[in-house]
Design brief:
This protein is an alpha+beta fold. The protein contains four helices and 22 strands.
Length: 273
């Protein structure tokens, strides 16, 4: 039987090797669930995310008790949309901060609202209040009805990361790389895609540039970007030190010719019509 675990700390590193100083290849956030594939002797677990990415996570960053994990998987109902948000002991402005979490965190909705705050539960069972403007309900998407809205939401979410610093393996407002940006933007909009700079046909289909729409993904060698409309795309660039907007149009001042010349594929998410 498969074993699953819940991330209990705000931002947890996924390593390429079972070493504390191993390469940082991805991040999982508080409330996310991973499948445990095997244990390692160096206090690491080899895990797989919901989007099929694999790597090593420290055992101490995960909750593994079957009952707690099962309950969590069945009940976490909201996702954090604010960049870096406090969960507090009560609803007063100077309340004790239980935990600070980042955009993309999953929490259990306890369905009590007071003073513009929502009562939530964390994976470790602690309870606190978060400003309800910084969370949204998790909902199942209906692509046949709401594709334009979903595409617009992808663009809106991506723009919220503008000027975030570049961080290899990152996927939070504290730092993000190119595929991390693409992955977390889609994930916040309830779409799980592979976290890598290659067009995985389990998730995307190739399209021509003449068919590109908002929310489609541009695939370059070892790099991804999200098309935001009007010939513009947003991406996290190590050369530019963070998340920036560039253009596909050579007439625009922010045209990125040396990058555009390497464009390999344009991908449309399979769920879109």
């Amino acid at each position: 039987m498969s074993e699953y675990a819940v991330v209990k700390n705000p931002v947890v590193s996924i390593k390429g090797h079972p070493k504390s100083k191993g390469e940082h290849i991805d991040e999982v956030l508080l409330g996310m669930v991973v499948e445990v594939l095997w244990e390692d002797v160096n206090d690491f677990l080899f895990v797989q995310t919901d989007y099929n990415y694999k790597g090593y996570v420290k055992k101490g960053d995960l909750i593994r008790k079957y009952e707690e994990v099962t309950s969590w998987r069945n009940n976490n109902k909201v996702i954090v949309t604010g960049g870096y948000v406090d969960i507090t002991q009560d609803t007063s402005y100077n309340s004790y901060i239980i935990k600070s979490v980042v955009k993309g965190t999953y929490l259990k909705n306890l369905s009590e609202v007071k003073a513009n705050r929502l009562l939530v539960e964390l994976p470790d069972g602690s309870v606190g209040w978060i400003r309800n403007k910084y969370v949204k309900e998790r909902v199942k998407l209906d692509f046949s009805v709401n594709e334009d809205e979903i595409r617009n939401n992808i663009v809106i979410t991506a723009l919220q990361y503008l000027k975030t610093q570049f961080r290899w393996g990152g996927k939070t407002p504290l730092g993000v790389d190119s595929s991390g940006l693409t992955s977390i933007v889609y994930l916040i909009n309830e779409i799980a895609i592979y976290r890598d700079a290659e067009l995985m046909h389990d998730y995307f289909v190739d399209i021509g540039i003449e068919d590109i729409k908002k929310g489609d993904v541009l695939f370059f060698p070892e790099h991804t970007a999200i098309y935001i409309g009007e010939d513009k795309f947003i991406h996290s660039s190590s050369i530019d030190s963070g998340v920036v907007i560039h253009s596909l149009n050579p007439e625009d001042e922010n045209y990125k010719g040396e990058l555009i010349s390497t464009l390999k594929k344009i991908g449309k998410y399979k769920g879109f019509k």
